[in-house]
Write a structure and sequence with these properties.
Blueprint lengths: L2 E10 L9 E6 L12 H4 L5 E4 H13 L4 E5 L5 H13 L6 E4 L6 H6 L6 E2 L8 H8 L4 H16 L3 E3 L2 E11 L5 H14 L4 E5 L20 H13 L5 E3 L4 H4 L12
Parallel strand pairs: 2-4, 4-5, 5-6, 6-8, 8-9, 9-10
Antiparallel strand pairs: 1-2, 1-3, 7-8
Helix pairs in contact: 2-3, 6-7, 7-8
The structure holds iron/sulfur cluster.
Iron/sulfur cluster binds next to loops.
């Protein structure tokens, strides 16, 4: 198949500071099924339109011409073969800005190995320290073992984050979304990440917002309390992480997209 399904592309400001303005390309589909997914319209409901590999390459060039600091491939894994062809083609057409693999981290190790030399920046999630929660909320088996191997491979390929003139040029950033009433899960996830490498950049995310999909999970039907978020942030610093970012108290209101609109991020 020489096509990919894309829900939206454009200049996107909703990433970590050295990644913006990102040239966001939001792909349709995801191999996790998180009940709390804020992008469920595209990850689980299949919203999007088909584009050929060459059209994808042209989108990358357009984003570069529009001033993007990078090509931010959001939930790309389903389409990895086509994306590879598109990156190669876009490079022939003059693409110079870094490629960001903004995936969920629970990925096929062989796919990630196959992206070496094409991806400059990896931006995976590390959602769970407890496998039972990964199964319960995302239908993901062996989460911790899988994501750990993938993140180690990403780090091996691109190393620590390098920022040049205020923009991310290469490296790894790992995101952890704090879930409500899941303090122990966050502690465990951060502890496990520290065992991989304490010098990696961590993005501690405070943008959880309950969606209708969490109705069967009462513990997820509320926002993360600021008190709990602070405890997790303190824990992160306490175990020695010293690179990265965290989000402010009002992050929940601003970041839930609506992909049925031409400007999903408002
Ligand atoms: S991994 Fe991310 S995009 Fe995929 S279902 Fe979970 S929250 Fe949504």
């Amino acid at each position: 198949m020489n096509q990919v399904k894309i829900a939206w592309y454009g200049i996107h400001q909703g990433e970590e500071p050295p990644l913006i303005p990102a040239g966001g390309i939001f792909f349709s589909g995801c191999d996790m099924h998180c009940v709390f997914c804020q992008n469920y319209q595209i990850s689980q409901h299949g919203l999007g339109n088909f584009y050929s590999n060459e059209e994808l390459a042209d989108i990358m060039i357009k984003l570069q011409n529009d001033g993007a600091a990078n090509i931010d491939l959001v939930t790309p894994t389903t389409w990895h073969k086509q994306i590879k062809q598109a990156i190669l083609s876009a490079k022939e057409k003059g693409l110079k800005i870094p490629i960001v693999w903004n995936g969920n981290g629970y990925e096929d190790l062989e796919i990630i190995k196959s992206m070496a030399d094409l991806v400059d920046i990896y931006l995976p999630d590390f959602k769970y320290g407890k496998n039972e929660l990964a199964l319960k909320y995302s239908g993901a088996k062996n989460y911790f073992e899988t994501a750990t191997k993938v993140i180690k491979e990403m780090l091996r390929q691109v190393g620590y984050l390098k920022i040049v003139n205020g923009k991310a040029a290469r490296g790894l950033i790992v995101r952890h979304l704090v879930l409500p009433n899941c303090l122990e899960n966050s502690f465990e996830a951060l502890k496990r990440l520290a065992e991989i490498d304490i010098d990696i950049h961590i993005s501690l995310m405070n943008q959880y917002l309950p969606t209708r999909q969490v109705n069967n999970f009462p513990e997820l039907k509320e926002k993360v309390s600021q008190k709990d978020f602070q405890k997790i942030y303190d824990y992160l610093l306490g175990i020695g992480f010293h690179n990265g970012w965290t989000q402010g108290e009002n992050s929940q209101e601003n970041l839930t997209p609506d992909f049925t609109k031409s400007e999903p991020f408002g």
